[in-house]
Amino acid sequence: MICFSKKFLTSVFNVTTAIAAAATLALPAVAHAQATPPYLASFPGFAPALTPDMPGDVDIALKQRLERAQEFSKVQREFDLNAWQMFLALNWPTNDQGQSAPRIEDTGFGPPHWTLWHDSSSIFQAKGAVPESCGKPPQQRQFVLSRNLAAPVSAGLPAFRGPNEASVASRSTRFLGVISAVGELNVSKLGGDIQQAFTGPLIDQNGNFVFYEIMIDPNEVNYLCDNKLYNINGQVAFSTSGGKVDMPTGHPQQNWSGSFELKLAWKVIGGTGDHKDDPSRFFTQRAEIIDQGDDGKPVKKTVEVGLVGMHIGHKSETSPQWIWATFEQIDNLDVDQVAHPNLHPSFFDPGCPLCTVNVQPQTDPNTRLYPRTPVQASRTIPIPADKVALNREAQAVLAKLGSVWQYYQLVDTQWPTAPSSKPSAWNSGLSQAVSNKPGGQPTPVFLTNITMETYFQSGNQPACNQEENVPSTVTCPPDYPSVPPGGAIAAYTPDPPIWTTPLNNGGAAKPGISTQIMATESCMGCHSSAGIVTAYDPQTGAKKTAGQLSADFSWLLSKKAQFAP
Fold first, then answer.
1. Which top-rank group of organisms is this from (predicted)?
2. Total-model pTM
3. How far apart are CA 513 and CA 529, in angstroms?
4. CA nearest neighbour of 90 among 41, 52, 50
5. What angle do CA 505, 507, 508 make, to 5 degrees?
């Protein structure tokens, strides 16, 4: 992460909160009149009385009080508690009528609430077909109880079901085929040097691919259906007619309001001997997956999968750049082998201290198959101490209830400190060209999930790797420390070689194209790059997008949508 001192962060916060406070003063008075939600009853601690309520936003009145008092760490805690409440509400047992169980440990009542949502492949369909849900009135899109599996879950894969048995109950079974958290990589598209791909698969310590899916809430589905944004044709028509993507916004006085996108990472539960998984420490479901067979071709399997990662994105009144909360299963990278001698981390081998970390796997040059060598994953930015403390409080409450969610942890919550702040230009200088790339002055600057952004944990790198809209004419040097002494390609002269303080030892901030900085990825920064399709050539498959911010922070429009011939 860029080296910001606490003094510098405080000074930035003083400026940005003034902007934020001015903006929030213009909010409707009703937004400030809501009662304190139960999840904040023990603020800044974790409230032990759990509820299934999904907040439409953080408590604005509390946020404003804390901002006026310049208690930045407590504002962050409010967003972190909001993140935990979203996590609990999404995973609360819920029946087919949308009713919540009396207690979170009542798992027999029904699967988690999010299983009532729409799988992204059911909305963004093969050959741009109109989704079945879009042919229904909005009130019938609230609860998804079955799924049509006659179409593939990802382009190039076989369908899970034939036309005669296509519709199946889907709340307790996952149907998985995507093996990259970014894009539509699946086993039909493997081959060659995967390191040349945007991002490759993650292979766990048992030698299995991690599978991914994205769920969309009914509010966003209604918006996509109403504006025909589920295929490229609709997006081109929408954009050329002057339409601007503006997903529904959540409000603090209205539970379950606003757009939600949920990304899930699943590992196959299995292993043998010292590498046998303990399913009691995972939220598990039956799954039908499409894996790579011994001959390299797709093969269907029925397995048990355990949840290892969950991204929650939520657009709200205080956060038009969305609130981004990310959770992981606690055994992903480390276990207490004194207390649990039979456990092992899912994505790290403590017995291999020399193993390179966060390196994308490669196919065997002779067979073109994956040898299933585990990826050694490592977190570049540690989970902050305040999050560690909050997680312990939440886990203690859940442990008393015997809930499996005691084995999950919040990595961090990203939100905009100054929502009206525009994105900083790529050549505007450090640190803003990187830290405010998406606009909104996000905090923390970087946020990643080890199961989803494994290969975005590169650390030291040229600033141009993290800046938006850098022209193709600008040459970006290789990552440090591979740059030889004096070998960096400086786009500006003089250009400080290493960023060491917010003002680089007191000097004026330079554009810093080749300056070495510490960076990973950012949920807000990455999603700000998502664009809506503005033109498409059916003959070549070439498409153009409107660029940064044009898809309102959703990659689904450009990554999942297909053309309807």
1. Bacteria
2. 0.90
3. 19
4. 52
5. 140
Closest CA to 209 of 289, 280, 272: 289
Domain encompassing residue 496: 6-93+383-527
Would you say residue 216 lies in a domain? no
Q: What is the pLDDT of residues 513-534, one digit of tens each?
A: 678 889 998 999 999 999 999 9
**CA pair distance 490, 431, nearest whole angstrom:** 17
Longest dimension (CA), the chain: 70
Q: How many helical (H) and strand (E) elements, i.e. helices and strands, does the chain have? A: 10, 15
Q: What is the DSSP string of 307-363?
A: EEEEEEEE-BSS-TT-EEEEEEETTSS---TTT-TT---SS--TT-TT--SS-----
Is residue 347 in a domain?
A: no
In 3D, which of 199, 23, 230, 57 has the Cα closest to residue 135? Answer: 230
Q: What is the C-alpha to C-alpha distance for residues 249 and 43, in angstroms, rounded to an integer?
A: 25
Which of 375 and 182 is assigned the larger pLDDT?
375
410 vs 262: CA distance, rounded Å: 15
Q: Which of 447, 503, 119 is nearest to 287 (CA)?
A: 119
402: left (phi over 0), alpha (psi -120 to 50) or beta: left
Q: Are strands 284-292 and 442-443 parallel, antiparallel or unpaired?
A: unpaired
Assess if residue 22 is contained within a domain.
Answer: yes
pLDDT tens-digit map of 420-475: 999 999 888 888 899 999 999 999 999 999 999 999 988 888 888 888 988 877 77
d(CA 350, CA 352): 5
The answer to whether 64 and 33 are in contact (CB under 8 A) is no
Sequence letter at residue 334: D
Helix H, strand E, coil C: the string for 148-210 is ECCCCCCCCCCCCCCHHHCEEECCCEEEECECCCCCCCCHHHCCCCHHHCCCCCCECCCCCEC
Check: CB of residue 84 under 8 Å from CB of residue 410: yes
Distance CA 32, CA 182 (A): 38
Asked if residue 335 lies in contact with residue 346, where contact means CB atoms within 8 angstroms, the answer is no
End-to-end CA distance of the chain: 45
The size of the chain, in residues, is 565
Alpha carbon distance 420, 58 (integer Å): 18
Q: What is the CA angle 556-562-565, rounded to 5?
A: 160
In a domain, 510, yes or no: yes
Residues 6+ apart with CB under 8 A from 188: 156, 157, 298
Answer whether 250's CB lies under 8 Å from 257's CB.
yes
User: Considering its fold, how many domains does the chain have in total?
Assistant: 1
